[in-house]
Amino acid sequence: MIGAGSARDPGIETQQFAAARRVRRWPDSTPPPTIFRRPIELVAADIEVQSRAHSARAFKRALDIIGSIVGLVLLAPLFVVVAAAVKLTSRGPALFVQARCGLGGRLFKFYKFRTMVLDADEMRAELEHLNEMRGPVFKMKRDPRVTRLGAILRKLSIDELPQLWNVLKGDMSLVGPRPPTPDEVERYTARQAQRLSVIPGITGLWQVSGRSSLPDFDMWLELDLKYARSWTLWLDFRILAKTVVVVLLARGAQ
Prior knowledge:
two-stranded antiparallel sheet; two-stranded parallel sheet
């Protein structure tokens, strides 16, 4: 893994970072709304893991292994270039590592190229009132924490490529619902928890049906539940093919 960078040079602090530091906090007289949470173990108890034929699961895993190995080998030069660019343009490691929830709510380490300033997670509390998504997920079209290079990597979906390592390890699949963070899962209802009934993926029905342009988590949820109910290898191949088109046209990316 690429290590942490040198101390910040105040002279190269981005305008986005400075703007994020000036974001308005909740007024003292109007505290943030209370968010109902429950332990991940209780959320996981609501999950009805989808049963599949052993042969179908074996074929899906074989596709994941072959696809991730081929992708990691062919994209290795790009990984080196992107990692160097991230390190040279902002303080911090080239890779962003975060805890995510996978099949059945199991925690795993999730990898992607870092696209935000180093302390972006700590700054999120100041931006919660600007969330543009309805439901237990956070999205902003002009997130001030995103670096200039990060915006480009997101637009081209290059930031997601390190997840091929997650696929090879078995934490993720090439196709499936996006893995949520633990704090998002803690806010799930019993129905929303069914997103975790199948192994998460790098791409899925959400990515090929509008991605971040879908403003409502319920719309996102319906697509994930549809995939969980109707998954087939043929559906995976169709989603992978559509993903290539979506990425090339940069549709719905943030």
